[in-house]
Amino acid sequence: MSQSTSCKTTSCKKAYITTPIYYVNDIPHIGHAYTTVIADTLAIYSRMIGHDTFFLTGTDEHGQKIEEAAKARNRSTQEYADEISGKFRSTWDRFDITYDKFIRTTDAEHKLGAQAAFKNMFDKGDIYKDVYKGHYCISCETFFPQIQLVDDEFCPECGKPTSIVEEESYFFRLSDYQDKLLAWYDENPECILPKSKRNEVIRFVESGLEDLSVTRTSFDWGVRIPEEINDPKHVMYVWLDALMNYLTALGYGTDEAKMDQWPARVHLIGKDILRFHAIYWPAFLMSLDMPLPKHIAAHGWWTRNGEKMSKSKGNVVNPIEIADAYGLENFRYFMLREVPFGGDGDFSQRALMDRINSDLGNDLGNLLNRLIGMSGKYFDGDVQSDLVSKYYQVELNEMKASITKLEPLLYDMQLHRYLDELWRPLSVANKAIDTYQPWTLMKEGREEEAMALNGLIANILANVAIMLHPVMPKTTVNIAKSLGFTIDGDSYQKIIQDGALLDRFTIEKIPPLFPRIEEMIIAETPKEEPKKKDEKKEVKKDDKAEGVALITIDQFFLTSLKIGTVIKAEEVPKSKKLLLLQVDLGDDDIRQVVSGIKEWYSAEELVGTQVCLVANLKPAKLMGLKSEGMVLAAKDGDGLVLMRPEKPKQSGTEVS
Ligand code: MSP
Description:
Blueprint: E1 14-18, E2 22-23, H1 30-48, E3 52-60, H2 64-72, H3 77-94, E4 101-104, H4 108-123, E5 127-137, E6 142-144, E7 163-172, H5 178-187, E8 192-193, H6 195-206, E9 212-213, E10 215-216, E11 235-236, H7 238-243, H8 245-248, E12 266-270, H9 274-287, E13 295-299, E14 302-304, E15 307-308, H10 319-326, H11 328-338, E16 345-347, H12 349-379, E17 382-383, H13 388-411, H14 415-436, H15 438-443, H16 447-468, H17 473-482, H18 489-497, E18 505-506, E19 544-545, E20 548-549, H19 553-556, E21 561-571, E22 579-584, E23 590-595, H20 603-606, E24 610-614, E25 620-622, E26 625-627, E27 630-631, E28 633-636, E29 639-642, E30 654-655
Parallel strand pairs: 1-3, 1-12, 2-3, 3-4, 8-13, 12-13, 14-16
Antiparallel strand pairs: 5-6, 5-7, 7-9, 10-11, 14-15, 17-18, 19-20, 21-22, 21-24, 21-30, 22-23, 24-27, 25-26, 28-29
The structure holds 5'-O-[(L-methionyl)-sulphamoyl]adenosine.
5'-O-[(L-methionyl)-sulphamoyl]adenosine (MSP) is lined by residues 20-23, 31-32, 34-35, 60, 242-243, 245, 269-270, 272-273, 301-302, 309.
């Protein structure tokens, strides 16, 4: 949670920073963590430099998709939304995310605020009633023109089938805003970052905008349009409802106490939701006569082995698992350093390990260790900066040159370049030790120079620690502690802004910050780790013991076994042997399984019980029905029994 700061002066800058609000039909994955960590980094930085910062995140809980996900689990929609929203909040708490507010679109204030906005746009004449007919994708909550469909049927975004929906709808006069939007992009070259994305948006808007359907009558789980309009069957289109969160979180339409934070400094989003943020959102704001955000910054996608992550492929990266295994702040550093903002990035444990061992361990951690060692050995831990400029002005200048480049890179979202530039002073420091060799200086009786060299290293580490603080908050606080200072607005002002050197201090020994990681910590499937040439996939003949093929542990881990809960079971018509099961594997993953167990189990007795499922079998068709897994059972002369956990376990628990 936030260490909320307020401005110390009346003229200070505001920094309202937002993440998208996350759908509650999915649990947090690396993509969500990425956006949130970038936003958190900006928020911590803005607070450190004294900007009046407000950092918003939250969950997007309305719409047909969520209603259906809850129904599939026999849960009330609100209860289901509460659970998943809670998972997002607890993930961000585990990630030490310093959000100032966690908004939920089911919050009463949000609904009132969204209704107030709708009413304002309606009263202005920007919303009118008509009939809509079009191809609708439930999954993306979006209508698509025929021309954009794949094979005339499938959604161009997610590939799922669309359906034709014809309904009475209220429309927003988006077409009226085409020229105003183009003027905004033109006058504000940095309104959409990276700039390449701005060009895409401009081309799209230039090709013509149609009015936007902003209400639905086909489902209930949403914000009703304002009572005054007197048309109770209409609920707001989820994207209108969701986008309004950026205003309602500040109290728009209710208690407007925080409205002075508006406009947003930056809305952080993924590239897939750029159209909503860069076209609809500014048009809504123009209609509401509100100032427009300064930046809409769209990052790329994380993939796994070059493939999109999805639950069905089982290749989703769980951020908590990675943070637990490799260290939260190491993971934060990795995500920001590894991928240029706006580009896609492939996640691999190898790449993460390399960053930890090389950038963090060798370049940063070792430098601090060397300083602790040298100052301990030669000067009882005493470190002085008075003579640094006398002997090492060139190195100090090199450091300053890098440090002054940083802030613009951060606000331009060039986070990978920010970190790259921040590593230059570390290499200046490491090189200085190798070049001037403190051990030789001491041997030659040039103690003053050796002390000054230690002072140089300490000051470089102090500068780096302050500027790295937003990315690695706790690690840098430890580094600063060892160097006898505290990271806060004052030290930022003194050391970074005024260029002051550290006061004399006695270095504090701290344990190595980045112990070397030799082995991948989380077992991966061989597909992700290319096999060594001599390792054959097939089971060799000599690997047989008493007629049973021996397999390696890697081969065993090719099979994903999971505990599942049977939520529905029915007989397969015309089949003596088959039952059709719906098995819940948690996290929105429900599998249809056709199983030959009817002779031993009735459909009714299975519902609510748990089974062990082979979760990564290629889907197959049995009697025309898709089967997406296999339940494990043991059969002898006495019949068949299902393999089940001894005590109930959470759906989706891995069996190993
Ligand atoms: N609810 C909407 C946002 C409404 S904001 C007014 C939504 N939610 S989402 O949960 O589906 O996605 C949230 C964010 O996660 C998006 O910015 C999306 O780009 C991001 N990511 C989802 N998967 C991702 C990756 N694999 N990699 C990086 N980010 C991705 O859209």
